[in-house]
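Worked example 2:
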Amino acid sequence: MSRFLSVPLIAAAILVSPPLFAMGSETTSAPQVETDYAAGKQAIEAKDWARSIELLSKAAGRDAGNADIQNFLGYAYRNSGKMNLALNHYEKALALDPKHRGAREYLGELYLMQKQLAKAEEQLAALDNLCFFPCEELTELREKVAAYKKNAM
């Protein structure tokens, strides 16, 4: 009986002890990614496009698989007037997460800026499929497409 009681105690000790294989290994870069990402978003709010690109690029270098970082990089590049770079980052975001509503909205806005209404409407249709109920991204892109059409007349 004492043999069976020791098994849960050993298991508990293993679970709460620091793993031996991790001792001496490099620390994760996740805290730095989060710091650069948060600071990059703050720079976007301040409309400091160069600083946001710098910080978000650092975060992307450490976490290349993060669709949110790619989306915000696209947003910063678009607002700094670098449309090709913005397009590249929106496409990366959507390759990582085809259901990324923010990237779909911002890509649609980029297409409107480039006078590519049909492509913007493709993003609008994709958002319509993604949003069971109207979502903010769908509503905003829908309004921008309608305004674009009104001004084009």
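The chain has eight helices and no strands. Residues 43 and 118 are 32 Å apart (CA to CA).
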